[in-house]
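Q: Predict the assembly, please.
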Amino acid sequence: MKANRCINATVALLALTAMFTSNGARGQQPSTPAQAAPSTETAAPLVEPDAVAVLNKMGAYMRTLNAFSVRSETTIDEVTDDGMKLQFGGTVTMQVKRPNGFHAELSSDRKERQLFYDGKTVTLYGKRIGYYATAPAPATLRELGEVLDRKYGIRLALNDLFYWGTDESVAANIKEAAIIGPSRCGDAVCDHVAVRQEGVDWQVWIERGKSPLPRKLVITTTSEPSQPQYVATMQWNTAPKFEAATFRFSPPMGAHRIPLLDANAASAGK
Amino acid sequence: MRAQSPSKILIALAVAVLALSSGSGPVDAISRQVHGTTNTNVNRNFSSNSNINVNRNVDVNRNANVDVDVHAGYCCYHPVATAAAVTAAAVTTAAVMGSIVHSLPPACTVTVVNGFTYQNCGGTWYQPQYVGTSVQYVVVTAPR
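A: Predicted assembly structure:
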């Protein structure tokens, strides 16, 4: 990544420190910014403060939304064991009402799934296949994201962008960050931001103006030789209308309940 | 990875059978082992070993049928491929208890025993479960 802007390292460090303290939602001690911006005295900062500021603004704005729906068109690469890269398409629609209402509908070339969360339980349902699994759930969406990921191996798209700026350890993972330039994103103009981390390069297109939302996301897995990518383009509705039933699952006729495997138990049994 | 061997055998046999039949019909399907390596989040991937996606099978066929779930799994949604896989399974005799497959043979009966869902496929019992968002079938002893 060419990030040779003429900002000296000290300014970068100051800006980063300011960013960490103003956004530190939990009052945790920020990890040393020196980690994020390597201290080569003469080099331009690899983590540009402008880029970090745009990312933080996005996260802060997203957290002001108490209800929204977002529809993502996605592609994901799968690599065969003999190195051939295959691309699969899909759509994910998420309906979110904070702090404890969530519904997602995923549809891809290979499966169709819905996720329901009402603050008490979480249900994974496959309409075509006719199976559903219900598990107890934590009280808030933020905790839900953690539980789904760590316990059940289910990742919520956009989850980490949503909490951008609230977890310093996450920001400390960034090795390089830069604003590449303006870019058209649907009906708007976006800032094209590129970020490099261990194992992943990612790019996000963030809308300019009053609603700095991510409109496109590309994640490149650089730890794989063939560098597979995940691409999502997003359409947002920040004034949605939800019914109470949106977040509650009632098993349709003919649906059968099955277990949702605890990923930790599964790996322990290996 | 524990789920690999039974399905690999199925795949190998399915491919063999299909290769034989491909000259005489429009069937053109190949099966591949893929691994889920693409990150879909930028930061969650380092915190935990969440690679619970055991190798999956992707069937490629030019008839472009995407209704995979109808046949309950990744593997072999092409009717011919399914048939081939089942034939292969029959040849290799009974499915091993505890083994995991990604799809069922045809003509299974759903049975609910003590609140748990099972599929009885010609005397072999499978218990479906979600692993992540994917369905797997574990071969179990007949529930009572």
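DSSP finds seven helices and twelve strands in chain A. The mean pLDDT of chain A is 82.
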